[in-house]
Amino acid sequence: MSIVRSRVEAELAVGLLRSHGLRATYVTDDAGGQEPQLQQDGVRVLVAPDDEADARRILADVGD
After folding, report:
1. Which residues form the DUF2007 domain (predicted)?
2. 3-state SS of the chain: helix, strand, coil percent to 5?
């Protein structure tokens, strides 16, 4: 759904989306946080397909 720069940013985004009642999670290939340099390609924030439009709106509102 969306790619953010770090695990911390992903955790914040997922928390925000969940607080709005959406199902959300994140996926990263950084060895469980032990290798943060592996986040260079970003961290994927995922939501259910039927929640995508709402999630994009919520995350866009934060950026404004």
Report:
1. 6-62
2. 55, 20, 30
The neighbour count for residue 4, using CB atoms within 10 Å, is 20
What is the tens place of the pLDDT at every residue in 51-61? 999 999 999 99
Please give the domain boundaries of the chain with CATH numbers for all domains: 2-63 (3.30.70.1530)
Helix, coil or strand: residue 29: coil
pLDDT of residue 24: 96
* Tokens, residue 45: 């924030």
Tell me which DSSP letter residue 20 carries. T
Q: Which residue has the tokens 């953010």?
A: 4
Q: How many CB atoms are located within 10 Å of the residue 14 CB?
A: 21
pTM for the whole structure: 0.80
d(CA 43, CA 57): 19
